[in-house]
Design a protein that fits this description.
Length: 241
DNA sequence: GTCCCGGTTT
DNA sequence: AAACCGGGAC
């Protein structure tokens, strides 16, 4: 993996012109804080959080995660949970049945596995309901490994910056994964990945991205486009960009 | 890599 | 009705 990372970072992908520490700095200044991001969160808790975060606002997950983990602190305890009770504790998030079966399958799969589960995404992905995104997220956030993460919001952000149309099947978008590797700093990559997620959620939003206030709009194909349209429609230059 | 699945959101 | 979202099947 060492060779691969090196190759990925050295090969000159389009230099996006974004500072390597931009997203870490964004995280320090504007990052969100969630209980599963605290140092006290266990790898199991982080894994559970990633399952709950699919299709769900993080703020809602924050309402149920602490009590859920307090009740089922380990895979063994969650695997032994009464399904109805587990369902109740996640039902306010929606997708109750899906999530309950995912949590049960996942927790019984790792019920007797010692920590660390694995620090290798290639192993983590073999777990039920763990795909490429979740495997990378756990490797990075739970085990401090240097791996990029690419979810839909990051595909959106990177595609806008580079000026490509988001690929059909967003999840195996090799080009975007390559760019995510090239953006990944060598230190504080956890903060970088959190920052990227938070930036995508708060600034580079799906519907009306805040290009006018965006600090990297000038480095972004979509941002430049929007900026030009704004200045034309207002018949004045937008000097700060 | 392409498509399907599921409940929720717009 | 369509988009969302990532896992899984093929």
């Amino acid at each position: 993996m060492e060779g691969e990372s090196e190759k990925q970072t050295k090969c000159t992908l389009p230099n996006l012109g974004i500072r390597r520490d931009f997203f870490q700095n964004y995280y320090s200044a504007h990052g969100r804080s969630f209980p599963w991001r605290e140092a006290s969160a266990s790898p199991f808790g982080i894994l559970v959080a990633e399952i709950l975060l699919k299709q769900t606002y993080a703020g809602k997950v924050a309402n149920v995660w602490p009590s859920l983990i307090a009740r089922y602190p380990s895979a063994g305890e969650m695997a032994a949970a009464d399904p109805d009770e587990l369902l109740k504790s996640v039902s306010e998030l929606g997708f109750g049945n899906q999530r309950t079966s995912a949590l049960l399958a996942l927790s019984s799969a790792i019920r007797h596995t010692e920590e660390p589960l694995s620090v290798d995404p290639g192993d983590l992905i073999k777990l039920p309901y763990v795909g490429v995104y979740t495997a990378h997220a756990v490797a990075c956030f739970a085990y401090g490994q240097r791996f990029p993460i690419v979810d839909l919001s990051i595909v959106r952000t990177i595609s806008r910056v580079v000026g490509i149309r988001p690929p059909k099947d967003i999840r195996r978008a090799t080009e975007v994964w390559n760019i995510a590797w090239s953006l990944l700093p060598w230190r504080r990559f956890k903060e970088h990945n959190y920052g990227l997620l938070d930036f995508a959620a708060a600034v580079c939003k799906p519907r009306s991205p805040s290009c006018i206030e965006c600090p990297i709009a000038a480095k972004c194909a979509h941002g430049r486009h929007v900026t030009i349209n704004v200045s034309e429609s207002q018949h004045r230059r937008v000097d700060r960009l």
